[in-house]
Amino acid sequence: MNLSRAAPRTIQASPASIAAAAACLQAGRLVAFPTETVYGLGADATNDAAVAAIYAAKDRPRFNPLIVHVASLEHAARYAVVNAQAADLAASFWPGPLTMVLPRLEGCALSRLVSGGLPSVAVRVPAHDTALRLIQASGLPIAAPSANRSGRLSPTKPAHVAAEFGEEVAMILAAGRCEIGLESTVVDLTGERPHILRHGGLDRDALRAILGEVAEGAGHEGAPRSPGMLDKHYAPVTTLRINATTIEAEEAFLGFGPDIGLGLGAAARMNLSADGDLTEAAANLFAMLHQLDAEGHAGIAVAPVPDIGLGLAINDRLRRAAIR
Ligand code: AMP
Ligand code: MG
Question: Is residue 112 domain-shared with residue 200, that is, in the same domain?
């Protein structure tokens, strides 16, 4: 509960309010909106800063990847590699409570933060008129986890959302209670065999009717474990040193906060946020790591990032990236 700030405006969904919400998304702001599963906290999925603002608003201690909400299978195919299985599932269950994890399309416009740095992306077409019209009106793929603070229950009514957030959310588009009230089923199609990552609104037997056998549970052969455990996927090729206060030969430096000369002598220098702004740092994290990694330095030295607010998620991810 956020008692210190006014709750965001709650506005009944209508063509005018959906247009206003679409404009907020285009301006990089957060909008809570209804889907058939739960209310989502949405942002432009192509905007790093807007996606970082989701993590900040939710107080998430980790950059769990987010679901990208799209209007159709064709829309999904602009960001993800759609294989035959995905097309079959979409034909049967989209729009609906099924999220598919697919390989990211190389060079696509999505923020790397929505994938939590993974080479995959989770996509879904919601079966809710307001959600679909919002995607269409904004012309954007919308990244949206459930519209609750980390560790709290998923919201199924506008009042649940209003109780959780303050001005960091531009508006709540309201359309009553969510019909399903349960998160979407998440199926991973990037491994050798389809794998259920999360049970939800679409039941397993429905999936099996299309896919045949579907694996579930963590750690089975040939399938990813749960995203938080995908340590090696988060690791750049280049060796990473965290909490660095010195530079070694040929290392690149990734700074945080005002330049106090720490990176002097580095082979390359970037700064997550010269102002020491953790939301800006989160927005830059994966893009900068990817760039420094691609440049092929002997190592990447990352300045200390404070362990507060989004710094917790940034440090969590940096620690995983530093594991060899
Ligand atoms: P939420 O958006 O918070 O309701 O949850 C999204 C779910 O999808 C979580 O269980 C995520 O871990 C999972 N997910 C999203 N994107 C990916 C991805 N690229 N790879 C694996 N799992 C994902
Ligand atoms: Mg949630």
Answer: yes
